[in-house]
Amino acid sequence: MNRAVVILIIVLMGCSLMLVYSQQRARMLYTDKNRLELQEQRLIQEISRLEYEQRELSKSSRIVEIADKQLRMKDPKQDKTIYVKEKDL
Are the beta carbons of 84 and 78 closer than 8 angstroms? Predict the structure, then answer.
């Protein structure tokens, strides 16, 4: 009977340690999950901001403004326009 009690105590201690380990692991996984969810939200916000910025930068009015101010480009005048006709084969 002594032997059975010792074996049961060892098994009980092992189960207790496994319970503590699994609870700690569950806590760590929960905190990781929360951290990753926050990171996901930040990335979603960043994607939205970048998509908005891309739309703003690709507007034709902005492109024309940059062409006028920074590149000093002007629309061609009518007398400077050359038309090329396709030669028939």
Answer: no
| pTM of the predicted model as reported, rounded to 2 decimal places | 0.55
**Run means of pLDDT, 10 residues per run, the chain, 89 residues:** 91 96 97 98 97 86 82 80 80
Q: Cα–Cα distance between 60 and 66 in angstroms, integer?
A: 10
d(CA 82, CA 89): 22
What's the token pair of residue 63?
């492109």
Dihedral Cα 5, 7, 10, 11, nearest 10 deg: -110
Measure the CA–CA gap between 44 and 53, rounded to whole angstroms. 14
Backbone angles phi, psi at 48, to 5 degrees: -60, -45
